[in-house]
Structures are given as C-alpha cells and as structure tokens.
Predict the structure.
Amino acid sequence: MNRFWNWIKEAVFDDAGPISALNASKCIVFAALFSLMQLIGRDLKTDNKINYSPLKGVALFSLCFCISLAAAIVCLKILEKAVVIFNKADENCNDRTFSIREYVFLNIRNLMFWMPYYILFFPGTSNNGDTEKQLRMFFHREGIGFPLNVSPIQGPDIFITDHHPVFTTWLYGSFVKLGLLLGSAAIGVAIFSFLQMICFSLALTWIWARLPQLGVDHRFIKAGTWFTALFPYYPIMSVCMVKDVTFSFFCILLMLFLFELMVSDGELWKKRWFTSLLTLVVLFFILSKGQGKYLAAVLFVILLFAYRKNWKELLISFVVPILFVQTIWVNVLFPLWNVSPGGKQETLGPLFQQTARYAVNYGNEVTEEEKEAISAVLDYDRLAEVYNPELTDPVKLTFRQAATDEQLKGYYKTWFSMLMKHPGVYFAATLNTSYKFFDITWKDLPIFTRFVSRVDETDELYIKSYFTGGGLNKIIRKLFLLIEYIPIVGLIFVPSFYTWLTIFCFLAVLKKNSIKQIGSVSLPFCSVLIFFACPGNLPRYSMPIILMAAIMLVSTLYRKTK
C-alpha cells in the first residue's frame, strides 16, 4: 500500500510539469460538467424542481468547480503516469503467442471465486417484471396485459411483442422450456445462468490474456485478472436473466473487437473471418436491446472517420445488420411469427414526458389547437394526473396506438412550438428522468439478488430463489448499499461513478490523430448519452458501462509501440 501511495505522490507532485493547454481544457470541461450535474441532482432530488437562486447557484457551482478541477488535474496526471508504465514494452512480446493455457487457468480461477455467488443466487436472478413477462409471452399465456396491450398490433393470435426484445424472449424461454423437459423451470434458469457466467468470464478475461502479447506491464495485467476474479458485480450480474445483462455481454464482445481493430491499426479488416464475426456480434448487439440499432449507427459514423479506407467492411459489419433488423426481421419475419413490433411510444417517450411536464407547469397556456394536436397522440386530459417526474412509463401508456403519421406530424409541430416558448421545461423533464446517473451521491444497486415470479406457486413457470427469496435478499442489498458509503473504495460499487469514469476516459483520448483510440471507447460514451433517453433513473441501465469499464480503461491506457 505504501508503494502505491508513493507512486501516486510521484505521479502528481514529483513529475508535475506544466499542464498542456489541451489537457487543461479537458479538465475544465470535465469539472464544469461534473459540477453542473451535481448541483442539478442536489436540487432535483428534493422536489423534482430546480430552485436555485442565481447567486446561490453561482456560489455552489464555483465551489464545486474548483474542487472538481483540482481532482481532474490530479487524475489526469495519474493517468499520464499510468500510460507510461502500462506501455513499457517487453522486448520479447513480439515473439509471444496467445497462451491458451494461461487463458484457461484464469477462467478456472474466475469460476472458483464466482461459484459461491452462483450457489447463493441459485438458480439465477431477474428484475421486477420484465423477464417474468417475457417467459409468459414465450409460453403464450393469457392475461399478460402490459406490454401486449401497448403494442401496435394486438389480437388473439399475438402472444409476443418486441417491446421486450424478441431475441431475448426466445433465448430465456428456450432455456426454461429445456428446464421443464428436465423436470422444472428452475433447472432451465440454472443452466442458462451457469452458461452465461462462463461466457462473461471468457469475455472479461480475454483482454488480460491478450495484453502480454502487446508488452503491457505485468503488474497491470495481474491487477486486472484479480479484479475480474474478485469484483462481486461481475458474478452477480453474470447469473442474471435480464435483457440488460444479455445486451451487456454483446457490448463487451463489441468492445473487444474495437480494441483489436485499434491494436492492429485496422489491418484486421483484411481478414474476412474478422468482418464476418464482427457482423454477427453487431447483429446480436442490435437484437438484444432496442437501443442497439441507434448505438450501432453512431458507431458506424465514428468508425468511418477512423477506418474510411475500409468503408465496405464497415458497411457490412454495421449497416447490413441494421438494415436486416429494420426490414427482414421486423417487416417480414415478425408477421410470419405473429409477433408485434414494439410501440412507437418507446422511442418517443422523452418527447411525451416533456409534453406532460409542459401541461403540468403551463397548462393554462396550452391553446385549443395545441391540445387537439396532442390529444390525437396522447390522452391529454390524463397527462397531469399520471405524470411522474422520474418515470416516463405512465405518460407513455396514454399513447394512442392508432395515431396516424399525419397526426404524429401535427404533434411534432406542436412539440416544437411549445419548446420555443418554455425550453427550460423540456430541459428539466429530461434531466428529471436521468440526473441520478450523473449524481455521484446516488446510492442504489445495479444488481438483482433474487428471481421474481408473479405466477402462482403451483404454476410450472414459478421459479423460486432457493436461498435469497426471503430475508437474506434484503440483508445482501443493505450490505452492498453500505459498501457504497466506504470512502474511495466504495465508489466502484456506485453506478454513477462509471458514468464519470466513462466521460473522463473519453475526454482523455481526445487529441490529434487519435481517432482509432476514440473509436475504441466510443461505445461506453454513447451508452452514457443514452441515459438522457432512458424511461427513468433505473440503476440496471448502468450495467453495460459497468461491465465495459475494464476494457475501456485498457483502451484508454494503451499506446501502440514499435
């Protein structure tokens, strides 16, 4: 420990030279964003309103900014020192091949440390509702209600909706069906959880097994492998049957591909097998979560700047999967399978939330013409009643599935005209459903500790958590919440910490001629931006950036050496 603190002292003080103008700008931007979001979060959490007087707001912002700026400079100095040590190339690294033996050993060690979590949370965990509804849809159960009743296509033959990704519905349902063939639904969940745990171990360990070939300092590799084995969130998330976890797995795979592209300086595009595998990863990345197609489109644009000579391979890897999902998957296969696409309210939720807040705050200013345009799309008369500042779902449920494109155009015009009148309302509405992801004092758990079944215990789909179904579940959750309050160490358990770590790493790699490195960390950064479109401050939405954090750090630290 003394060696660690001496290293920090050396990085910050002994090697402290003048900070460059570019780095100073990065620290200022980071400190300004951090300070602003802390002030907004501090005020919104009291009454869902921003009430600061100008004088008090400026005073608090200035204080927070000064502290944050100093911390950002220190962290950047530490990062610069870490980059130097991280890239002290081993002269024999070019002669090394990927060690399968070491890779297998690391995964066996992971499973030894992860198995107690698998047993504790046996047969696996889920969130409060989504997975259970997906299983009931897969088995064509009656009386499901939401989300089938908010889908654009409804009828007696429609049992599944893409409101929850069809791919994950079939994936989870298939394992439960296998379990039923073997005697119980819980067996299927247990098999799925175990296999998913192995997949996560293989994916998270790959980066550390790969680094010796790149000449990376062995101390970083050793620390990374032990962190992977011991960090509790990894095994707890890996035994969770929730779409966010499945999506996170493909996020990790995509990050690994982007890292290898950066390391090879784009040479891997010449390998057909690489393009083929990347295309499959992107396809499943899109199929496992609704936001996947938007992230894939943004990544395509960013990577086009980095690898413009390989635009054909980029089209195949990113655009083809998007087109396949938007055309063949949704427009051809869904009708054949009697599957309803997800409703438009999922995409338009942030806009609907802004409209509802406007109706609550400035209802007396809404004209009859505006009210008519809104009522064609939403139940205007109920907006003020159902509006929840921290959750868009109640407002989204008033969406009229029969609304035509012409009526939606009328709504968009009204939405824009209201924006011009009171832009602050729209700003506050969006922040109210996302500010906690940026509030470093937010204490909540991005993990689940039991399997939630809302069917009768006599139902074959009832899945019981063997050890955490009762009081132990609450004890575990309280324990992890207490850990979050531990100074410094507790930060790695706080969801919002990963938001700021992602922003910091993205800013750190912003420099001239670093577009390939920027591309390698763009996915977690874009995932942070998605928070502003989330339906609410639910910590599970942080799962992808938590699970991508280690690979993002490696991509930030790595510098190609001759």
